[in-house]
Write a structure and sequence with these properties.
Distance between the termini: 59 Å
Largest sheet: 6 strands, mixed
CATH topology of the largest domain: Rossmann fold
Strand content: 15-25%
Number of strands: 10
Helix content: 40-55%
Shape: globular
Strand order of the largest sheet: 6-7-8-3-9-10
Length: about 270
């Protein structure tokens, strides 16, 4: 469904991404992980048209995304959330999600100004859809509250519901559990899994390895702008480059030393 081929991005001589190759199959639940500063959000900004690649190509369903505006990419069927939450706090949850439905709303300006039956029918359809999406993230009971009254974790879930309201085929989630506690992460994991089971392809980026490993079917690891590993969660856990990227070589060596000491101690207990 989504393919990045030899994608690089430079900023004033600084190479943020270098020859990134990534393929996200249709219907997958795919994770892109890496330490802070690895270039993960830059990948999303390139996919959604906020940035253009310095070299390489990005295609969605076989069609190139180069030079398309962000709204055109949304219309093509890609929606995203942001690392820094972007919701309208002075509006209700329902109003926030209804805004995301604008791509599916078809009525004339005359129908809107005169509140004709055709306009009212479309508005009612959008309201029903927004309420349905709020149930998916368990916020329907707060639909008529101002978004400013939500907790940080709930605001993140509201942003997911609004992204879904655009009618995407591919949902991009930018660090969806940032700032959440463990119980909130567990709850959101269930909700993202349920969204995926409804037929959406999901690509999420995170630095929380535990969250991604417990949720995703396939994982790619980005470090210093390069893909250093890709495979199943089990394969990624055992990859030496991934261990080094997350722990650092010195810490990884210390961890190995501690394991050796622990194993020697256990052996000594068994064989005095």
């Amino acid at each position: 469904m989504l393919q990045l081929h030899n994608v690089s991005r430079h900023f004033d001589g600084l190479q943020v991404l270098q020859d990134v190759n990534l393929r996200v199959p249709h219907g997958s639940l795919f994770g892109l992980i890496g330490p802070n500063g690895a270039g993960k959000t830059t990948v999303f900004n390139l996919i959604t048209g906020l940035l253009q690649p310095s070299s390489g190509s990005i295609a969605f369903k076989g069609q190139p995304l180069a030079q398309r505006k962000p709204f055109q990419i949304t219309e093509a069927g890609i929606a995203r959330t942001f690392q820094n939450i972007r919701i309208f706090k002075e509006m209700t949850l329902l109003e926030n999600v209804m805004l995301g439905c604008h791509r599916q709303l078809h009525y004339s300006s005359v129908a809107m100004l005169l509140a004709l039956p055709s306009f009212r029918a479309v508005e009612r359809q959008a309201r029903e859809r927004a309420l349905e999406l709020l149930t998916w993230v368990r916020l329907d009971h707060k639909a008529h509250l101002l978004a400013d009254n939500l907790s940080y974790g709930e605001q993140r879930k509201l942003e997911i519901a609004r992204a879904l309201a655009t009618g995407p085929e591919l949902l991009l989630l930018d660090e969806p559990v940032a700032g959440m506690n463990d119980s909130e992460k567990t709850e959101l994991m269930r909700e993202i899994s349920a969204i995926h089971q409804r037929g959406y392809t999901v690509l999420l980026i995170e630095h929380d390895m535990r969250f991604v490993m417990g949720l995703c079917e396939q994982v790619a690891v980005l470090n210093f702008g390069r893909i250093i590993a890709q495979g199943t969660p089990a394969q990624i856990r055992q990859d030496p480059q991934v261990i080094e990227a997350y722990l650092g070589q010195d810490d990884a060596d210390d961890a190995d030393d501690e394991d050796d000491k622990s194993n020697s101690s256990k052996a000594g207990e068994v064989n005095p």
